[in-house]
């Protein structure tokens, strides 16, 4: 299964699906980062509230022994949210607020 994302703009949250399966518990990685795991302890998905902030990718990768490709993908997804926030901030500084729709 390919990694996929779902962004809920109203909740200001993103869910990254890593694998198919039934979640049996959720591991908390600090405020706003939750990892759903299956019965074998494998990560199925990651929910990040306020995704424009730094994500604890290294800690998640270490805890679940994620491969380098998955870690790179997670870092890239997080970077894309932070980049969007930087662009939004630039528009706000130019007083182009109607164009800046990213909640940072």
Count of helical regions: 2
* Mean pLDDT, all residues: 86
Main sheet: strands, sense, barrel: 5 strands, antiparallel
Total beta strand runs: 5
Uncertain segments are: none
Q: Determine the N-to-C terminus distance.
A: 31 Å
Q: Name the assembly state.
A: single chain
Radius of gyration: 15 Å
Helical residue percent band = 25-40%
Rough outline: globular
Blueprint of the fold:
Elements: E1 4-8, E2 13-17, E3 25-28, E4 33-37, E5 43-49, H1 57-64, H2 68-93
Antiparallel strand pairs: 1-2, 2-5, 3-4, 4-5
What does this 3D model show about the protein?
The chain has 104 residues and is an alpha+beta fold. It has one domain (4-99). It has 2 helices and 5 strands; from the N terminus they run βββββαα. The chain has helices at 57-64, 68-93; strands at residues 4-8, 13-17, 25-28, 33-37, 43-49. Strands 1-2-5-4-3 form a 5-stranded antiparallel beta sheet, with no helix packed on it. The longest helix has 26 residues, at 68-93. The mean pLDDT is 86. It holds the Pfam family DUF2283.
How would you summarize this macromolecular structure in one to three sentences?
The protein has 104 residues and is of the alpha+beta class.
């Amino acid at each position: 299964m390919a990694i996929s994302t779902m962004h809920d703009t109203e909740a200001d949250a993103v869910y990254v699906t890593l694998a198919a399966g039934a979640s049996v518990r959720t591991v908390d990685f600090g405020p706003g980062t939750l990892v759903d795991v299956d019965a074998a302890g494998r990560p199925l998905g990651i929910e990040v509230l306020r995704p424009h902030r730094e994500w604890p990718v290294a800690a998640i990768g270490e805890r679940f022994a994620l491969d380098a490709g998955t870690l790179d993908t997670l870092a890239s997804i997080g970077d894309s949210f932070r980049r969007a926030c930087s662009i939004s901030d630039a528009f706000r500084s130019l007083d182009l607020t109607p164009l800046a729709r990213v909640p940072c």
